[in-house]
Structures are given as structure tokens and as C-alpha cells.
From TrEMBL:
It holds the Pfam family TonB_dep_Rec_b-barrel. It comes from Billgrantia gudaonensis. Keywords: Cell outer membrane, Ion transport, Iron, Iron transport, Membrane, Receptor, Signal, TonB box, Transmembrane, Transmembrane beta strand, Transport. SUPFAM superfamilies: Porins. PROSITE patterns: TONB_DEPENDENT_REC_3. This is TonB dependent receptor.
Length: 115
């Protein structure tokens, strides 16, 4: 294996995880990534006339996965999965006393050509 890279993204929502590049054998060129995203709790304060009081979302940690494979010169296939285990969570609440579900499992495939 060529390298293991740790990537950390510093924002309100934090993400980190390793990416492994395979450089020999039948899986030469494969990139495998896995990571965890931490979404902290948040608060909303609706108007007193709505009688809801303070609304709070709980913190959640989500798992993500990625896979990349160069299958021909300049071509690469990719697969990214966010919220790998399809965790249900409240993503946010606003001051109008509306709360929204967080993003469910998302699978995205890519085909890339570099010229």
C-alpha cells in the first residue's frame, strides 16, 4: 500500500477518516476511504406565542465510505456513500418551530475522465 492519508475538515460539522491507496497486486490503483462525521447538537428558540419552548437536536455521528478505481488510462469510477448505516436523526430545527429529518443514506456514482 502506498499511503494512508487522514483528512480532517474543520467546520461546525467535523469529518475525518483514512484514505488507502493500493499500489500493487490485482487491486492496483484502488482507493478506499472511510470516515466519521460528527454533527453537534443545536438549539432553536421559537416565539413564545408558539408555546414550544426551546427545541434541541441531539448530536449524531455518521459513517461514510468511498471507493475509487481507475479502469483505463485517464478514466476512473467512483462510489461515495454518505450516512452508510442510514441513521435517522433530526438534522435541524428553526425558530419557526419546524424540525427536519437529516439526510438519509446517499449513494453517488461517478465516472471521471482526465485529459
Amino acid at each position: 500500500m502506498k499511503a494512508i492519508r487522514w483528512q480532517a475538515y474543520h467546520a461546525i460539522r467535523r469529518r475525518c477518516g483514512p484514505t488507502i491507496d493500493v499500489t500493487n497486486g490485482p487491486l492496483d490503483g484502488v482507493e478506499i476511504g472511510a470516515g466519521l462525521r460528527y454533527l453537534g447538537s443545536s438549539h432553536a428558540y421559537p416565539a413564545p406565542s408558539l408555546a414550544y419552548g426551546e427545541l434541541k437536536t441531539e448530536a449524531v455521528t455518521l459513517a461514510d465510505f468511498s471507493l475509487g478505481y481507475p479502469f483505463a488510462e485517464n478514466w476512473k469510477l467512483g462510489l461515495n456513500v454518505e450516512n452508510l448505516f442510514d441513521e435517522e436523526y433530526i438534522g435541524e430545527c428553526n425558530n419557526a418551530a419546524r424540525c427536519y429529518w437529516g439526510t438519509e443514506r446517499t449513494v453517488q456514482g461517478t465516472l471521471r475522465y482526465r485529459y
